[in-house]
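User: Okay, second chain of the day. Same drill as before: sequence in, structure tokens out.
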Amino acid sequence: MAEEALKHKEIREAVVCCIDNAAQKQGKTILLQGIEYLVIKPEDIMQHFDDKTCLLVTSGYYRDIIYQLNHMTLPEELEIYSYPHLKVNYASDSWEFFENRILNECIREYESVLEQNNIFGKQREKLVQEKKKFIIGKEGEERPLVLPRVMIMPTTRCNLRCKGCSSLLPMFESPADVDISQNIKDLEIFFSAIDECIRITIGGEPFLYPHLKEMLEYLIHQKKVLGIMLITNSTIIPSEDIVDLLKNPKIMVEISDYGHLERMSRLIALFERQGIIFKVLTEQTWTDMGGVQCRNRTKEELQFSYLNCEQSRLMKGIHNGKFHTCARSARMHGLGAYEAEEDYFDLSQGESVDGIRDKIKKLYYSNYAEACNYCDLGTLPNKIIEAGIQITGNMKKSAYTIVNREEYEHLKQQATLKESYEKG
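Assistant: Same drill. Structure tokens below.
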């Protein structure tokens, strides 16, 4: 969090030193954002004070740290700020809100799309500046509605049952697919009301959705979406017609490495042979979002959780005819775990384009969601858990997943031979 805070030039240039309780860090320097800062003991704070000094707490444990500071002998006029609160303390109609929650997130997604297409250097800089100019819009005119990323959830099926699944898929007793006609209708209404969406993510276990081919074909030809991301658990080999579509440069596949090395190596070997753009997420951890019971949080706590949450600013969710404030909201609504009409709206063909557009804007420029009463993602400090651990324990991990190149090539050869044998 200190690294994040020091990205701001005004903060970076004003820092005198860093304070830490850890004895092994005290008296040494720490490199943050390219600058070395001295680390001191809390007891030595006063040696670095003058009448212009304030304290900035940059930690998920900010409550504990502020409590400690309040019980030290410090000047009464000393101002103490919490970076977690500063970074969400923007009015929803301010430039800062738009810049941090829309513009910066869109540019980050756009840079990822450029990277997957090997666009770097001056060409990349030129394209990023052009995109930024387009998103900001022309003075005196309505700003284009450009969104960073939206997740569409065509299925609640998954062949794994992971503890701490952010999509809550193990909780669905009767997993089901959304009809392809419904999904295409939802996307048609959505795209009619926006100017651009940098990336669409397909959720669930996408390779289990029986109509993935039709959905990919639609999205590939949709000019208002620049990139398509699929996230797979690495245990399913897609069919040949899906593989052909995955070769499209719009598509990136993220492969979650949950330790099932043999299956994953077969999938990677296939993607490498076919020239499919992919990324392997190794040594993952998850933020534990907790169960879906109500937390009884105050309005102030809900606002902080919402504005601090990655999903609220990055990834709204489309599921079965509704547009939700986040992907988890859609899953909880599907489970019947909570009901809050302000957290979603119907993608109705009977409503005007302007009406749908206004409702999308309202969710993106909100500072609150009732869904945060049933989730811990935006709270601090986060609880970090290991990714991909099975509830039933019937999916055993391989002994290791990080291998050197020679071992990896050997595994690829074995996977290729096995694949050829199975095809006869």
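The chain has a mean pLDDT of 92.

User: Thanks, on to the next one.
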